[in-house]
Amino acid sequence: METKKMLKTCKKGHQFYKSSDCPTCPICEEERKPKDNFLSLLVAPARRALENNGIMTLEQLSKYTEKEILGLHGVGKTTIPKLQKLLSEKELSFKRGDLH
């Protein structure tokens, strides 16, 4: 089954095709993507989830458990290993918590 992509226009006037109802403009997302910190290495949904929760640095991230981060809308299981690696490169880790 082929999904039909619809032409959409964002508030800034960028035109893009999307097959879902998601209103996020990929051009705007690329423009606002951080260029020089760990957030730039994440997919947009995971990046937005962290940003929306005030997590802008690895030091801030280290105050959360893996379970708490996985509970954020937009963060999936494939994001956790990336975050673990980034944390360990700075000699940080997720906060220890109950894994049950």
What's the N-to-C terminus distance? 39 Å
Largest sheet: 2 strands, antiparallel
Q: Report the C-alpha radius of gyration, rounded.
A: 16 Å
Number of strands: 2
Let me know the average pLDDT.
Answer: 87
Strand content: 5-15%
The strand order across the widest sheet is: 1-2
Structure description:
With 100 residues, the protein is mainly α. It folds into two domains: 7-34, no CATH class; 37-100, 5' to 3' exonuclease, C-terminal subdomain (DNA polymerase, domain 1, Orthogonal Bundle), CATH 1.10.150. The radius of gyration is 16 Å and the shape is elongated. A two-stranded antiparallel ribbon has the order 1-2. The model has no long low-confidence stretch (mean pLDDT 87). The protein is built from five helices and two strands, in the order E-E-H-H-H-H-H.
Short recap of the structure:
It is built from 5 helices and 2 strands.
Secondary structure elements and pairings:
Elements: E1 6-9, E2 15-18, H1 26-32, H2 44-52, H3 58-61, H4 66-70, H5 79-89
Observed structural traits:
100 residues, mainly alpha, DNA polymerase, domain 1, 2 domains, two-stranded antiparallel sheet, 5 helices, 2 strands, elongated
